[in-house]
Write a structure and sequence with these properties.
Number of helices: 5
Mean pLDDT: 79
Shape: elongated
Helix content: 40-55%
Low-confidence stretches: 106-111
Structural class: mainly alpha
Largest sheet: none
Number of strands: 0
Length: 114
């Protein structure tokens, strides 16, 4: 997916070195390439992608996608919960057309990636 300037796959050390230089030039401190992948997992999930679609893009193992989502990023996430309520409200089998409120209790706060 990513290639170096010779159009060859990166070696691990080559990519780490290039990433470090690019991050330093951009003023990014304390983040790794893996943080970027984790953010991609969350963004794809919020966009409605399923786990298969997510790991096809990010290269994670299927179980790792679920672990990232449940352990670190999405618990009590207001945006994710709101999306779920919207889906429930659109579901034809929901109880006699009852609409559930999209405003969430204050306990549901957006959790920022670690």
């Amino acid at each position: 997916m990513l290639v170096n300037s010779d159009d060859k796959p990166w070696s691990e050390s080559g990519f780490q070195g290039a990433w470090g230089k690019a991050a330093a030039r951009a003023g990014i401190r304390g983040l790794t390439f893996h943080d970027l992948r984790g953010t991609a997992v969350v963004t794809l999930a919020r966009a409605g992608c399923n786990e298969v679609e997510i790991y096809a893009i990010t290269g994670h193992k299927p179980g790792d996608v679920q672990a990232i989502l449940t352990a670190h990023y999405l618990p009590r996430d207001a945006e994710v919960a709101g999306n779920a309520i919207e889906k429930l409200n659109r579901y034809p089998g929901s109880k006699r057309g009852r609409k559930f409120p999209t405003a969430l209790p204050t306990a549901a706060k957006t959790v920022k990636p670690k």
